[in-house]
Amino acid sequence: MWLLAVVAAVAVAGAVVLGLELTSGRTDPLSPSPDSGTTHMPAPDVQLPVPDLIGLSADQARLELTNDGLRAEVQRSPAGNSVSVVVSQSPKANVMVKAGDTIAVFLGPPK
What we know:
Blueprint: H1 2-17, E1 47-49, H2 58-67, E2 71-75, E3 85-90, E4 96-98, E5 102-108
Parallel strand pairs: 2-5
Antiparallel strand pairs: 1-4, 3-5
C-alpha cells in the first residue's frame, strides 16, 4: 500500500517538474499557460484582419496589435501635439495580413 502512495507521489512530482498541468489537461510543457501573461503569436502563415485603430492612443494601438499577433510602427505628427491619437493606419482596417506583419500607425491631434 505504501508503495502505491510513493509511486503516485513521484508521478505527481514528475508532472510538476515537467510543467504539466494535471487539472487543465494541457500536456505541452513548453507552451505557456493561457493565464501566464504571455502573448501567443499565431503561426506566420495565418492570415489576420487588421483591427481598426483610429482614435486609439499609441499605447492602445500597440497593445491591440500585439494581442492580435501583429507589430506596430508608430509615426508621430511633426506638430508635436502632446495629445495624439491614431488618425490613419496602413493597411486599413479589415485588410487581411500575415501574422507578425507590421502595421504603420500615424498619430495626430484628435479630430
